[in-house]
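Worked example 3 (structure in, sequence out).
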């Protein structure tokens, strides 16, 4: 018989004191000791020997799992822990302390914090549809195998509204499909119990779907014949309690609220607009049910309804290491949300895109880094459910993309027609990537790129490395910009107001052009140093081609003996001399360059075109 008893669970050690009184051996449990359910995580989680008030989802994988556990994988355990936390009330804090597989998509309720202290395998898309969620991976790797879907899907994209419309007849709660409207051909396919259903001027929720042409409602629609119906598939069945005004709804059971300001909610058959959401309550614009308990509701989610969110609660992801598995789509996709926070995400492997922004705004992304990507940051737009948005006013503080092996990828890409712009990319390092098109901006413009290190990108097969097809963008240093392609920075024909400044340009490809302004383009090119390569200013019959600086002089840009300027394809010597016809730069109008179509006269003048 020993004199000490140790029990070790997840790094926590329970010590039982041994007391000997008059030959009698007593084992005394310390006052601070917790029951086994607490040690295994029913009320506490054990991290590095410290007790705290989080729920340990990993306790579900032990031989003495708490009663609230369900499912057989980490994703299901997280969901069970979230449900248990909701039932307890108070702060929602979930920990994962053991490695495992996530085959069930974790659903993190609004206002919850998830801390992961062990590696995970993600075999399903991880949707983050709630705001006010904080996830800290603490640098533990997550391996995603979800292609072609994104590994992490942020926003309402995975819960897009399914809308059906047509004609139907009702007899009380029984509703029968009666035909389409204007050739829509839409019956009850895709609707689920809990979906919102409106017939004529009345709305209810669906109790059961009997077939594609027959449903049963939660409340009576009376007797209607061939009336127009509109049905929305929203969140799953759940219940709420209401206050005396019928305008404050408190979550009672089922999935947590997945609604934003501007969405709608149907309670006991009455619809209302959502005007405010917190972690457990929804405020609506009109009374739906006064002093009601556990009444059914369905939320009608209008995807990407970010315009209505004056003070959005952000989704925050910290210290993520996301590794590509055997197949992968995008690493992270953010669709139509506001206020996303990504702190120090690192991506490993050839993802379709590291971060694919589809109409999201005001994201703050700190320290994004990657190796071996296909494409990096994609600033796209979104057009769905009547809502149109570009990816605007997002900020990236510290971008490092290296070692991509894919020539067809683009490190930073704003697609044509996306209406995206006003984004900031600071402290950008692009080095050792095979991407032939490194930055391509076709969007709304007014983006800023502050380059810190740029070299050895592309395969030198032709074309440009950086293309500005939009207006009023700015590319600035202090980076040394090295190119292996015919063009480093290409300002497309007709573009306006772009600024290129404070760069050191070194062309490693013979005859390469550091900065090229297309036909009738207007730009400010100032304070750059051309260590090698030329700057080309094509002929333009429209007048202004390139504004050198606000003082109308060219002293801001420096060329060495192997660099120079080309106007209309004719090189201009940078050393002293008297240019012949078509080989001289002249001032066409104040602040506008032209070229000398004749040789210089004795006074140094020429015919300036």
């Amino acid at each position: 018989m020993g004199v000490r008893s140790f029990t070790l669970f997840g790094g926590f050690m329970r010590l039982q004191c041994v007391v000997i009184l008059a030959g009698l051996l007593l084992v005394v449990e310390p006052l601070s000791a917790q029951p086994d359910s607490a040690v295994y995580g029913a009320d506490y989680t054990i991290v590095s020997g410290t007790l705290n008030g989080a729920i340990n989802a990993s306790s579900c994988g032990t031989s003495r799992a708490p009663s609230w556990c369900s499912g057989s994988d980490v994703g299901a355990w997280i969901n069970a822990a979230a449900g248990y936390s909701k039932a307890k009330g108070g702060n929602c804090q979930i920990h994962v302390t053991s490695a495992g597989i996530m085959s069930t998509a974790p659903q993190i309720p609004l206002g919850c914090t998830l801390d992961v202290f062990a590696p995970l395998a993600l075999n399903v898309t991880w949707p983050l549809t709630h705001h006010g969620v904080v996830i800290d991976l603490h640098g533990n790797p997550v391996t995603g195998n979800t292609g072609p879907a994104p590994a992490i899907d942020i926003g309402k994209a995975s819960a897009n509204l399914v809308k059906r419309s047509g004609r139907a007849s009702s007899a009380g709660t029984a509703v029968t499909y009666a035909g389409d409207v204007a050739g829509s051909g839409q019956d009850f396919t895709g609707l689920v119990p809990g979906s919102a259903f409106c017939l004529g001027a009345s709305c209810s929720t669906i109790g059961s779907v009997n077939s594609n042409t027959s449903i049963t409602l939660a409340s009576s629609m009376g007797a209607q014949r061939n009336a127009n119906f509109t049905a929305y598939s929203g969140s799953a069945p759940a219940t709420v309690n209401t206050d005396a005004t019928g305008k404050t709804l408190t979550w009672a059971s089922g999935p947590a609220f997945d609604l934003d300001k501007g969405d709608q909610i149907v309670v006991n058959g009455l619809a209302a607009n959502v005007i405010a959401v917190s972690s457990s309550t929804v405020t609506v614009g009109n009374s739906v049910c006064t002093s009601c308990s556990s009444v059914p509701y369905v939320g009608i989610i209008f995807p990407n309804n970010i315009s209505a969110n004056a003070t959005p609660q952000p989704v925050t992801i910290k210290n993520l290491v996301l590794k590509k598995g055997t197949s992968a789509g995008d690493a992270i996709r953010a669709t139509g949300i506001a206020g996303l926070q990504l702190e120090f995400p690192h991506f490993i492997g050839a993802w379709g895109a590291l971060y694919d922004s589809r109409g999201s705004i005001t994201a703050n992304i700190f320290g994004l880094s990657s190796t071996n990507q296909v494409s990096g940051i994609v600033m796209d737009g979104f057009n769905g459910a009547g809502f149109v948005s570009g990816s605007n006013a997002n900020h990236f503080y510290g971008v490092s993309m290296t070692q991509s092996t894919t020539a067809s990828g683009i490190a930073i890409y704003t697609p044509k027609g996306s209406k995206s712009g006003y984004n900031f990319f600071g402290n950008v390092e692009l080095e050792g990537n095979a991407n032939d098109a490194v930055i391509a901006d076709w969007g709304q413009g007014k983006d800023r790129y502050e380059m810190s290190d740029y070299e050895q990108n592309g395969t030198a097969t032709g074309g440009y490395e950086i293309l500005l097809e939009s207006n009023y963008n700015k590319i600035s240093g202090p980076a040394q910009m090295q190119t292996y392609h015919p063009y480093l920075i290409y300002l497309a024909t007709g573009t306006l107001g772009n600024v290129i400044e404070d760069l050191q340009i070194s062309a490693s490809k013979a005859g390469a052009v550091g900065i090229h302004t297309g036909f009738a383009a207007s730009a400010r090119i100032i304070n750059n140093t051309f260590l090698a390569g030329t700057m080309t200013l094509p002929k333009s019959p429209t007048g202004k081609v390139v504004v050198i600086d606000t003082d109308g002089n060219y002293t801001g840009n420096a060329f060495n003996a192997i660099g120079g300027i080309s106007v209309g394809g004719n090189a201009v010597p940078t050393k002293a001399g008297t240019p012949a016809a078509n080989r001289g730069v002249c001032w066409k109008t104040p602040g506008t360059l032209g070229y000398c179509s004749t040789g210089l006269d004795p006074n140094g003048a020429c015919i300036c075109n």
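Notes: The chain has a mean pLDDT of 77. Residues 40 and 62 are 8 Å apart (CA to CA).
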